[in-house]
Amino acid sequence: MATLTIAQASCADDYDPNSMSVDKARAFIHQFLSPIEGTLRVPVRSALGRVLAEDVLSPVDVPAHRNSAMDGWALRGADLEGGEATLAEIGASFAGKPFAGRVAAGQCVRIMTGGVVPEGADTVVMQERAQATGKSITFAPGQKTGQNVREAGEDLRAGSVALERGRIMRPAELGLIASLGVGEVPVLRPLRVAFFSTGDELKSIGTQLGEGEIYDSNRYTLYGMLQRLGCEALDMGVVRDDPHSLERAFAEAAGIADVVITSGGVSVGEADFVKAMLDKLGEVVFWKIAMKPGRPLAYGKIGGAHFFGLPGNPVSVMVTFYQFVRDALLVLAGASPVEPMPTFKAVCTGRLRKAPGRTEFQRGVLSRAADGALTVKPTGEQGSGILKSMSDANCFIVLPEAAGNVEPGATVEVQPLEGIV
Ligand code: AMP
Ligand code: MG
After folding, report:
1. Among 94, 186, 84, 62, CA closest to 136
2. Extended beta strands in 11-62, E state
3. E strand or H helix at 362, and its extent?
């Protein structure tokens, strides 16, 4: 738990609210995050996407029995020490149908991958290295005692940690848990995130637009991003730019959620009024981040809830969510370790305009060229209100603070928007 208050931390020497670097803002926020509590036990399938609340210990050895890694014959390694040898096949051990007897000197047992290695045997020779004539099996020289045998408990000993708390349950984790014979999983309750849009110009879909009005899209992108992260998304609608409505909305949201996210109302001109109100309700800092899009950003606490005030522009909402909110929500939800979204290098096929002094998150389409090189093509108009540039993209092109214009053929850093799982 952080000892500093947000107000104290924001007075640190290197802190400039009018020009916060992306990394510094991220680090600032992380000082104040600690995971929620509240564990429930759910059936394995329902744990998908949830965060493991406790270590899961393996109740069994994995594999449970000493078994074969190959199709072949199980035998005593000592019988092959003299080079080529012919042994008598006395039975078979198939997966799920073990051989009941014991293998003595001069004997072998036909075995399939996963079959229990019978007593007496310590080695498996793969079938490609053997010649069968009826029940007489001749083995090629050069075999090693112990080869192709998987020991019981080799993957996981009974009582050892199979999965650490904090793991996000993906398909692999569901399968791993099932492989242990465990039917229920302790998971943390989902993080509750309330969100609303602010702006007198905003209308919800299903209503008629008046002069100068626009449909609220931010609540839909936010819903999608929150849902994808496994949060409980509480949509509180559109709130007018009016002090009483806003104050009521903030108080209500903070009362029902772990995190409150708003869009709009933090840009110059609107911030002062929101700031005055939030000073009353909690402790919030307002920044101008040295980034594009997504310059204005607010973070703080309202009562017990964390607050993220995102800019209003639709692309800015998504960029600031991915760059600041995503990791923070994962930490609050109890996930660990939380790794920043990975970046890697690709060749940019277009020209990018970029002024030094701010980190830019342009949108691009990453693909593999015929020669095997990873290339990224910008998605056209990069205005912060143009959601199509985000929809057409499969990655951010991350241009660092110091960088200037990018010429075609230059190598840039990209950050994929989707992972494989
Ligand atoms: P603001 O940060 O409130 O000044 O908004 C910046 C721009 O984003 C303005 O053009 C707003 O109309 C637009 N905007 C704000 N909120 C939304 C929203 N929920 N959906 C779509 N556009 C929005
Ligand atoms: Mg506004």
Report:
1. 84
2. 39-43, 56-57
3. strand 359-368
What is the rounded CA–CA span in Å between residue 123 and residue 156? 21
Task: Give me the DSSP letters along 153-183.
Answer: TSSB-TTSEEE-TT-B--HHHHHHHHHTT--
| CA separation for the pair 330, 151 (Å, rounded) | 38
Whole-number mean pLDDT of the chain?
95
- Residue-level pLDDT at 3: 66
CB-ligand 1 contact for 217 (6 Å cutoff): yes
Q: What is the greatest pairwise CA distance in the chain?
A: 94
Q: Using the atom order of ligand 1, give the atom closest to the CA of residue 311.
A: 2
Compute, in angstroms, the gap from residue 343 CA to the centroid of ligand 1. 29
Query: What span, in angstroms and rounded, lies between the C-alpha atoms of 324 and 334?
Result: 16
Our answer on whether the CB atom of 309 is closer than 6 Å to any ligand 1 atom is: no
The predicted-structure confidence for 271-288, as pLDDT tens digits, reads as follows 777 888 888 999 999 999
- Close Cβ partners of 312 (under 8 Å, ≥ 6 residues apart): 197, 198, 199, 218, 263, 264, 265, 266, 267
Residue with tokens 């241009």: 399
Question: Is any ligand 1 atom within 6 A of the Cβ of residue 118?
Answer: no
Report pLDDT digits (tens) over 84-98: 999 999 999 998 999
Q: Whose CA is nearest to atom 6 of ligand 1?
A: 312
pLDDT at site 184: 96
